[in-house]
Amino acid sequence: MRRYTFDMIVLLRPVLILLVALLPLVGCGEAPDRKPEARILVIGDSMLAWNGGTGQAVSDAMEDTLKEPVVDRSVIGARMIYPLPLTGAAGLNIPKQFRPGSWDWVVVNGGGNDLWLVCGCIACSRRLNRLAAEDATSGAIPDLLRQLRQTGARVIYTGYLRSPGRGSPIDHCKTDGQELDRRIAALAEVTDGIFFLSLDGLVPHGDLTFHAIDRIHPSVKGSAAIGEKIAALIEQEES
User: Fold this and answer.
1) Residues whose CB is less than 8 angstroms from the CB of residue 119 and which lie 6 or more positions away in sequence, other chains included
2) Fewest Cβ atoms closer than 10 Å to its Cβ: which of 49, 83, 102, 149?
3) Is 192 exposed, middle or buried (0-12, 13-18, 19+ CB in 10 A)?
């Protein structure tokens, strides 16, 4: 037990350092009334929010590709299952990022922080099942995607950018991440208007150009590539 605890501390140390560094960046995301004509909403965690401070987040790439406004309420550090009410309402709870509107599309990601920050991608079976059951019939993510679909919007759940495989702190999360993808993809296959967009294969093995210096979050190039893939799916479905 003592050895296991020590290993956990060593493993989670970079996570704690990252969290401290990111605290000043936590925010509520864009207010929909800033872009009243927008019909696309983005909610989720730092994979979508990263590079937003310089106007180069995933949603910015979507706007450039689609030539229309996109409201981005994604927040760095956000989780699908988040119990604290105040910071949850401020955006750290992904379902609470949603705001009603005349949305044709809602783009969602999330669940990675639930696995990495809560159970360290170690012995995460219970947490994974809370995010999405094996058959995808229940769980925080399927419940959210169905609720969003009931508003009339079409919904895209975007999988995660894969590790470059060169010393990333999330290399060991691969198995849990792939299983989460499989479960959400299964839901999308049987649910009209819900789409799963995999990012598997976007990053060539060993290529660091798609990631920021932490080898976790997307670089500007990575955010652009993700945004272009999401935009391409929307264009395909509307053509």
Assistant:
1) 127
2) 83
3) exposed
User: Which tens digit of pLDDT belongs to each residue from 145-174?
Assistant: 999 999 999 999 999 998 887 888 888 888
Residues 65-96 as b/e (b if ≥16 CB within 10 A, e otherwise) read bbeebbbbbbbbbbbbbbeeeeebebbbbbbb
Question: Measured between alpha carbons, how far apart are the two ends of the chain, in Å?
Answer: 57
The CATH number given to whatever domain includes residue 200 is: 3.40.50.1110
The 8-class DSSP code of residue 67 comes to T
User: Percentage of residues in the chain with pLDDT exceeding 90?
Assistant: 73
Enclosing domain of residue 17: 2-238
Judge contact between 58 and 27, C-beta under 8 A. no
The domain total for the chain is 1
